[in-house]
Amino acid sequence: MALEESTPNSSSIPPIGLGLCTMTAELIADEEGFYSKAKKYWKNIPPTVDGMLGGYGHISNIDINSSTRFLQRFVGEGSGKAGVGCALDCGAGIGRITKRLLLPLFKVVDMVDVTESFLAKAKAHLGEDGNRVGNYYCCGLQDFIPQPQRYDVIWIQWVIGHLTDAHLTQFLKRCQKGLRPNGIICVKDNVSHDGVIEDEVDSSVCRDLASLRSIMQLAGLHVLAEEKQDNFPAEIYQVYSLALR
């Protein structure tokens, strides 16, 4: 998902109701085209850290360091903390997050991404640490089903904008079933200031916090913590991390 802010094309935010959110439905007339266009976009992106970050590869260290501090609050020894057995990297790309955030903390990491060439590149990018990658899943998250009760942490970064509201809600529900006792889901992504903004270049949307909270509530998740990313360039979207259970 693009980091740089695009020209706003906002929808109004409906109140939380009993049914699924419909915010993206107002923007996405062709759901099949929405997914196929995104898949085509990422096939043409170079399998590098700079490619994964849309030309903002220089922010990777800042991102990883902040994510590490955030995640360490919820894993390890202590009452109610998640274990360190296995994590899932969603929208993993070439393994930037797997290599520098998850493998240093977890014994095994699984990776899922829609772009086959990225996962192929990951094996070289990860080096010897790649021996601790359990599974490479080539699949869109709208279709991916995490193995039940396998994961201590499911990390979802810069990829939820490629899912419709309904598919994001359903995916988060499936992630819940994939958690071990005390496991958590972490979502880190771009957040708009108001409403839902469409990016036609990479075929994604950027939601505001109210929209995200609404979807998470519909998925039956409780927000344990919410943190705004500091020290990113001013011209890109604000980024938030949310820990969910």
Automatic annotation (TrEMBL):
<comment type="similarity">
    <text>Belongs to the methyltransferase superfamily. NTM1 family.</text>
</comment>
<protein>
    <recommendedName>
        <fullName>protein N-terminal methyltransferase</fullName>
        <ecNumber>2.1.1.244</ecNumber>
    </recommendedName>
</protein>
<dbReference type="Pfam" id="PF05891">
    <property type="entry name" value="Methyltransf_PK"/>
</dbReference>
<dbReference type="InterPro" id="IPR008576">
    <property type="entry name" value="MeTrfase_NTM1"/>
</dbReference>
<keyword id="KW-0489">Methyltransferase</keyword>
<dbReference type="GO" id="GO:0032259">
    <property type="term" value="P:methylation"/>
</dbReference>
<feature type="binding site">
    <location>
        <position position="96"/>
    </location>
    <ligand>
        <name>S-adenosyl-L-methionine</name>
    </ligand>
</feature>
<dbReference type="InterPro" id="IPR029063">
    <property type="entry name" value="SAM-dependent_MTases_sf"/>
</dbReference>
<dbReference type="GO" id="GO:0005634">
    <property type="term" value="C:nucleus"/>
</dbReference>
<dbReference type="GO" id="GO:0071885">
    <property type="term" value="F:N-terminal protein N-methyltransferase activity"/>
</dbReference>
<feature type="binding site">
    <location>
        <begin position="141"/>
        <end position="142"/>
    </location>
    <ligand>
        <name>S-adenosyl-L-methionine</name>
    </ligand>
</feature>
<dbReference type="GO" id="GO:0005737">
    <property type="term" value="C:cytoplasm"/>
</dbReference>
<feature type="binding site">
    <location>
        <begin position="113"/>
        <end position="115"/>
    </location>
    <ligand>
        <name>S-adenosyl-L-methionine</name>
    </ligand>
</feature>
<keyword id="KW-0808">Transferase</keyword>
<feature type="binding site">
    <location>
        <position position="91"/>
    </location>
    <ligand>
        <name>S-adenosyl-L-methionine</name>
    </ligand>
</feature>
<keyword id="KW-0539">Nucleus</keyword>
<feature type="binding site">
    <location>
        <position position="157"/>
    </location>
    <ligand>
        <name>S-adenosyl-L-methionine</name>
    </ligand>
</feature>
<keyword id="KW-0949">S-adenosyl-L-methionine</keyword>
